[in-house]
Prior knowledge:
By secondary structure, the chain is mainly α. The protein folds into 2 domains: about 1-10 and about 230-385, no CATH class; about 10-35 and about 45-230, Alpha Horseshoe (Serine Threonine Protein Phosphatase 5, Tetratricopeptide repeat). The protein has helices spanning about 45-55, 55-70, 75-85, 90-110, 115-125, 130-145, 155-170, 170-190, 195-210, 215-225, 230-245, 250-260, 265-280, 300-325, 330-355, 360-365, 370-375. Helix 3 (about 75-85) packs antiparallel against helix 4 (about 90-110), helix 8 packs antiparallel against helix 9 and helix 9 (about 195-210) runs antiparallel to helix 10 (about 215-225). The longest helix is centred in the C-terminal third of the chain and has 27 residues, at about 330-355. The chain is elongated. The protein starts with about 45 loop residues before the first helix and ends in an 18-residue tail after the last helix.
Amino acid sequence: MRCSWMRVAVPFLLALSLACPKKPVEPVLAPAPTPAPQGQPKTPAEQAVALYDRGEYSPARGILEELERQGSLNGPLMYRLGFCYGYAGDEAKQREWMARALEALQQEATTANSLEVSFFLANALTNTGQTVAAARTAAEATSLIETKQWPEPARALDRFRVAKLYADQGRGDEATRWYRAALQAFAAEGEPAPGYVRWARRYLAQRAIARGDSADAAEQLAALVALGGAPAADYDRLAGARVRLGQWSQAAEAWAEAVRLDPANADRPRYCRNLALQAETIRSLPAASPAGGSWASLSKEDLETLLREQAAIARQIHKDAATTPPADAAARANLERTLATAQSTFVAAALEYALRNYDIRETAFVGGYAPLIFHPEEWQLPPASPPQGDQN
């Protein structure tokens, strides 16, 4: 039977990041222009948008820069150019072009009546720290859809825009519905749009974790890392969701990938991976704490106490086994059962501790029980010695 405690939401995961390390925030991408009639070549702006939507930011930037020299950039294209500079590490130019995009979009909004302009204006306001104004702009746009003044969009990209506008207002249920609809449409349309898909799946994973739906979180995060290019943090979150489902070996695989991607900052995933491997061997962790309460109800100090107590049991049994005559089979079996119980409690408490983002490495180091995490044989009795009379 799988452990019910593993389905509890993990507090540290509620701050799920929507950005990759050392990169600017994943773009809320500019709208694709109306496709050119079949058989006609794309305009430079359409080419730039297509490249950008596929995540090919360097060639997109080159086209956008040429359009800028021609004075042909509108607000959404300025926004894209700003992101391209940020992605390349030029934060000064990113800020400059985001500010210019905001000014252009505010001017366009005075005459435009479109989802495109409202979407980009809300996003530009958010990126410049004007979140109240962004939420107001977003609410005005979604109200037009709700009152049927604008038609409900069918294209994946437009569905994504609506979802983001609801998210800008903090309306999570509506945003979730529209992000799911956008993902379905992206899959149906068959056009690569990794930036949109990553953003949508991270948002859906965040929402799933917040409501304790580890199955949905694991599904979204698995699909996210399958796109390629995911940072170690995404694999860490995926592993956490899998642990909550009792998927120990799959969690260990995800943590191993986190270690590979960022070995210099891999203490946490190394410890967690070894705990997950032990859980896979144990197969069934206790559904409740030794006191009978839920694991979620335990405080940080409660968990640390449990870890110390189980480690002390293991040390004492090993000490006794080394200093006393061999026990008979029944006594030895009883000691093995005691060790097995201590191990399952230890692993359950350690995983709960780590998934709350407490420092499992520091705690294990100070407590002296890191060997119990990295050397599962420490939870086994040493081989029984033969009776004295049988020795030569």
